Fold this sequence. Notes:
Order of helices and strands: EEEEHHHHEEEHEEH
Strand order of the largest sheet: 1-5-6-7-8-9
Number of helices: 6
Largest sheet: 6 strands, mixed
Oligomer: single chain
Amino acid sequence: MKWNNKFTYPKSSRSLKNGFRHYLFNNNKLPSVTSILQATKSEEDKAALENWKQRVGHTEANKIKNEASSRGSSMHLHIENFLKNRVNESFFEENEQYKNMAKEIIDKGIKGKLEEIYGIEATLQNPEHKYAGTADLIGVYTGESVIIDFKQANKPKKSDYIQDYFLQLGAYTLAHDKVYGTKMKAGIILLCTKDILFQEFKIEGPELAMYQNLFLGRVKKFYEINNLD
């Protein structure tokens, strides 16, 4: 696993306005991938989320959401520190949940598979289609140029339940290809549940192209419903 600085990823600042996160590139403001996906959820998905909140109660729903967010942020940070050689193996010996989750992803999803790193927490923009986002990891994975996202979950996932994750990867790979003239081979999700179960999901070939196109449809919808150019 080595660093390869063949691409220069842009610096940007971020702002939150009207509930939407934006990336600021000089005078150019682009909505984030996650804000686009959140704003364009189907009525069915919105109803399912609301039904869950009603079932568990809004207080408990917020607690679960906040705990998951905190756990995910800590897990991401420790994976990032490992990739940047800021921590050694002994750091993960403490029996803390997010460290165990990070270690599971590192042991089963990174070691022996990740060959080169192009960028970590790399900002990507697509000026043509007017969106931006941050990819967890960009590099060479089992011989292919890919974009990887790290995810945590309360319980194991099926592909049907993580369509937004695949749309994120479609957005990131398309942005990278557009700006840098690459041909990203795949998008990969490395996921660990709070019970320390590892899962890997991969989209490539026609499936990756499908999610790229589906995301562009969501971008179009986002600009239409918000009366933006």
